[in-house]
Amino acid sequence: GQYHLVNKNGRIEKSVNAHKGAMIVGRWSNDDSALLTAGEDALIKIWSRSGMLRSTIIKTNLPILTSSWSPDCSTILYSQGANLILQPLNSNSKSHKVWDANNNQLLYSSGIGDYPITAISWCPSGNYFAVGSFNTIKLCDKNGWLHSVEKVNTGSIYSIAWSSDSTQVAMACGNGKLLTGHIIDRRLEWDNYEATLIKRKMIEIRDIGNEVHEILEISDRVVHLEFGFGHLVVTTLAQCHIYSVTNWNTPAIFNLKRSISTILLAEK
């Protein structure tokens, strides 16, 4: 996608290739000092008045369909699916907020952190988002509540990207390194049973009533799992494993021809 700089006489003085795919948003700042662009490539960029790229401030997983400056040009608002996200440009914000895009209602406002937030990104499924700051990465659920905090020795985290299945995250860090992580500690309950993903390829099963404890080792990293009606269904990138609560040792396993996005269980 391109944009054109046009003088007062209507003459195109410069054309800039700004985005791969369509450029959907183009907005001048309120003081006319900078141009914001966004597009199908899930990027938001800031340009000078002369058409020089100043910075790529947002890298997300979904096309950015709308974006706007705050009145003082210190923050931008942009969309990610059904969510609206505020991104400070001065890197002074130490808290995050979650809004309902349908009625503009504030759903959650976090406490003040120790350092400014430098990156934030929703996962494609919309169930989690990650927040990066100095030596810290936080994982929050879709309502904004903190799920986990990891302290790292990488400096500030400047960019966050998710895998398409929402199970892995990559982070560009201030020390020049790329940090990767996998979402674990996903916990499901059914009847007296509790299933917890404790490692990328390992699930812990507990029967609370009988104090039964089982460890299920999966051949590949777990992408999805669902528990109900006496069965635990686990998918990896290539296979589906179906466990019965009456026999955890011999699951039914079959190969998948394509990736799975959702698992729903029901009675026969």
From TrEMBL:
GO biological process terms held by the UniProt record: cilium assembly
Domain IFT80 second beta-propeller, chain residue ranges per copy: 185-268
PROSITE patterns on file: WD_REPEATS_2, WD_REPEATS_REGION
A Pfam short name: WD40
SUPFAM superfamilies (UniProt xref): WD40 repeat-like
WD repeat placement: 16-48
SMART domains named in the record: WD40 (SM00320)
Keywords, alphabetical: Cell projection, Cilium, Flagellum, WD repeat
InterPro entries (UniProt xref): Beta-prop_IFT80_2nd, WD40/YVTN_repeat-like_dom_sf, WD40_repeat_dom_sf, WD40_rpt
Record GO cellular component, one term: cilium
Entry keyword annotation includes Nuclease: no
UniProt-recorded name of the protein: Intraflagellar transport protein 80-like protein
Source species of the chain: Camponotus floridanus (Florida carpenter ant)
